[in-house]
Design a protein that fits this description.
The structure holds 2 protein chains of 2 kinds. Chain A is of the alpha+beta class. Chain A has 2 helices and 5 strands, in the order E-E-E-E-E-H-H. In chain A, a hairpin with a 2-residue loop joins strand 2 and strand 3. The C terminus of chain A is likely disordered. Chain B has a single domain, classed as Rossmann fold. In chain B, strands 4-3-5-6-11-10 form a 6-stranded mixed beta sheet, sandwiched between helices. The chains are: A alpha+beta, B alpha/beta.
Amino acid sequence: MCLAIPGRISELHEHLGVPMAKVNFGGITREACLSYVPEAQIGDYVLVHVGFAISKVDEEEADRTYQYLSEMDQLSELQDGEEEEPGHEVP
Amino acid sequence: MKYLDEYRDQTVAQKLVDEIKRTVTQPWVLMEVCGGQTHSIVKYGLDCLLPERIELVHGPGCPVCVTSLEMIDRAHAIARMPDVIFCSFGDMLRVPGSNGDLFKIKSEGGNIRVVYSPLDCLKIARANPGKRVVFFAIGFETTAPANAMSVWQAREQRVTNFSVLVSHVLVPPAMTGILDSPHNRVQAFLGPGHVCAISGWTEYEPIVSRYSVPIVITGFEPIDILQGVLMCVRQLEQGRAELENAYSRCVQREGNASAQGMIARVFCVCDRAWRGLGVIPRSGYSLTEDFRDFDAERIFDVGNVHAVEPSICMSGEILQGLKKPLDCPAFGKQCSPESPLGATMVSAEGACAAYYNYGRHLVSLEALSPKG
């Protein structure tokens, strides 16, 4: 129910005084209300829930986190300097 | 799709699982709060990837599940009225009341519409001036700004044939209810990422300090969830209890101020009955006096509709993390998604429905483990 999907704004317009956008989700375009993310511009990624943008995706933060996660095993090996402990084995 | 596919990457997921295994030295019980997270965990089998010492229990964060049977019966009573167009999110259609579901009402001639956005209801209301259009406004903090906007815009645009049946619920009171229980097992929470996109996490900081419980705001994709688990386990192993954010691409501490502003204009905090959990004080939203003309409960006078739950159902204990779906003797027998007995089976995001839909009752956890 709290499903929210990131999509890219392709167009901005107004409907009855309400700021709206066309948002592209991997090829599918849907309308979203921009009232709660009024600063969002064409090309920005927004998180959309029941037809409302609820948050702008922080692209720098996303890249930084992903980079960190991708390199995590190297980092942890550097930190530990130890052999990996055997994980839980299901009999 | 960008910001989805990379968070399902198997290689990164494995690195996180390995790091969790390196970190954990003793048993811990973690609760994911949100039904969307439960659904992801069971769908991707994330619980089977984790070391045996980490147990995930499934929280109360599925708003369809926790909408009281009484409220569903009230919705159905309104939906059966001849001059009503009853609008709902799709998830609610199959949820049975005491006498069938919205599909049954539709098959009997009821005018039921599924809406993608609450604003769609206003279009329907303008196009049908002779009908009374009612929207079943359910959801957590995530959905409240959208539902509030439909009411606000109805007043702005003078759409007088529109009203809302409000059954909104709030996450923090449910979490403190779980922690206050003398039987509580939860030692850390994966916090609800999309709820916090709206509310931020300032309301969660007092919970962290009062109960010394780690809360890590967590997203919904497999890598988000594994990252949340790792951050919780690190805190627990190091004896820390802090509020951390594993979903920083979408959530900031203060949340979304303009969405919070709209909620405050349209809704006020009220006591709310949760299916499976009973009444939790100050755990829901209702319309403020300013918007009483849009309150379907007043307009249609359905306050006298009452309902009784089947006694065999243990969804209340499941929603508090005290039991798991497979502990229930009715699971997969008297109770299934086709004929659910209680909260956790009525929606795909409920823990019981997720276990059922992904066949957890048909195979052992060992068989699902990559090493099994």
